[in-house]
Write a structure and sequence with these properties.
Length: 399
């Protein structure tokens, strides 16, 4: 792949991931890879120090000539295969520390290679299925100097957030499409997320969670009225009725869809509200935090999106898998008399209920594409919003 730029390799990896299925929480056959599944938070006062240690390690890898690539194309390989490419794979996994050197350079895809490849996949946000398919090959073929540059870029980010973050806080890592609820320096729960599309990005910000809305109405933002509702109504005039969305003027009078000219932007002058229920885009609960972008964390009726590897589908808000666990933690941490049973009961009634937290909980919406934890495990994610400026290095991937 000589002459292919690092940026091209990264973009190709992003595109290929859209076709891959996802295993929630990386639990498939990874029981023996305990150090990757850490309770250490991604964002902590020590994260910058862990990244510095990883940078030293990756500098040595680069100085030693980096790691070789794995030949692309051909049939996907898994345990039991016998192929010359397995030798390449072994060299690559040994170089990055995923495979012990004593495992040797046999051309047999054995259990050692299987475990090492799953570990690599976990560290890169891929499905830990032990299959060397296209997406995994492309991740393997991102050169060491590009990974080093990612670590250096993220070290600067983490140093700017290395102070006290709070005894309890929520962290959204946008490139990883993941949420962590952290208490007393440990991750209490991790949640798969769906975050903003490339053209409707989830904002990076620090804020505080102050309120929960159970069984909420959804007021459709003007941007979505313009970009989504108007085109959908042109295709299907029954779209609003099917999705239980009603139209109001700003005096509270309800309008019918026939009263609006859908060939113009007239619809943006009105308020579109989706009733609570199974079709509601916010699902059963919305988590509010202070921000100027009109975004929030919320449940979703589209649960299948959490089962995808490429989870950049929203219009900026963050959809939370297993949101009830997060909501229960938020309430138990701050507001007496709330437990999981009460959360389930309120949702089951379908009645609107707003709950203000007695104590606001810090929220960090971050953009971290490379980090390390206390066990020395180094993680990488795609630079989905192209904020790492890797193309600016002028370096070429020599694979």
């Amino acid at each position: 792949m000589a002459g292919v730029s690092a940026q091209t390799a990264l973009q190709s990896l992003q595109q290929n991931r859209q076709n891959v299925e996802w295993a929630d929480n990386f639990d498939i056959a990874t029981e023996n890879i305990t150090e990757v599944k850490s309770y250490a938070p991604t964002l902590s006062p020590e994260t910058a120090d862990y990244i510095s240690i990883a940078i030293d390690r990756y500098q040595r890898i680069v100085q030693a000539g980096g790691w070789g690539g794995v030949t692309a194309g051909g049939k996907a390989m898994r345990i039991g295969a016998k192929d010359s490419r397995v030798v390449e794979l072994r060299r690559r996994l040994i170089a990055s520390g995923d495979l012990e050197q004593h495992a040797g350079l046999s051309d047999t895809f054995d259990s050692y290679v299987d475990a090492a490849l799953r570990r690599f996949q976990l560290r890169h946000g891929l499905i830990p299925d032990g299959v060397m398919g296209d997406s995994t090959v492309q991740a393997l073929n991102i050169p060491a100097h590009v990974r080093l540059r990612q670590l250096e870029t993220n070290l600067i980010r983490m140093r700017s957030m290395s102070g006290f973050l709070g005894d309890r806080y929520v962290m959204v890592n946008i490139p990883a499409a993941e949420i962590e609820a952290v208490e007393d320096g440990r991750v209490r729960s991790r949640h798969t997320a769906v975050v903003g599309k490339i053209d409707r990005q989830t904002p990076i910000l620090n804020s505080k969670i102050y309120e929960l809305n159970f069984n909420p109405y959804w007021t459709v933002p003007v941007s979505i009225i313009r970009k989504d509702l108007i085109p959908k109504m042109k295709e299907d005039p029954q779209y609003l009725a099917k999705n239980k969305i009603r139209i109001f003027d700003w005096s509270g009078n309800e309008l019918q869809w026939q009263q609006i000219d859908w060939n113009t932007d007239e619809a943006t002058q009105y308020r579109f509200t989706q009733d609570p229920g199974q079709e509601n885009s916010l699902g059963s609960v919305r988590i509010n935090f202070h921000n100027k972008h009109q975004v929030y964390l919320h449940d979703t009726p589209s649960k299948t999106l959490f089962g995808e590897d490429y989870r950049f589908h929203s219009s900026g808000c963050v959809r939370v898998q297993n949101v009830r666990e997060l909501v229960t933690w938020l309430l138990q941490s701050t507001t007496p008399d709330w437990n999981r049973g009460k959360v389930d009961s309120v949702i089951r009634t379908g009645a609107r209920e707003d709950v203000r937290l007695k104590s606001q909980i810090p929220l960090y919406m971050t953009y971290v594409t490379a980090w390390a934890n206390s066990d020395g495990v180094v993680h990488f994610r795609d630079d989905i919003y192209n904020r790492d400026d890797l193309a600016g290095t002028g370096e070429q991937a020599r694979l």
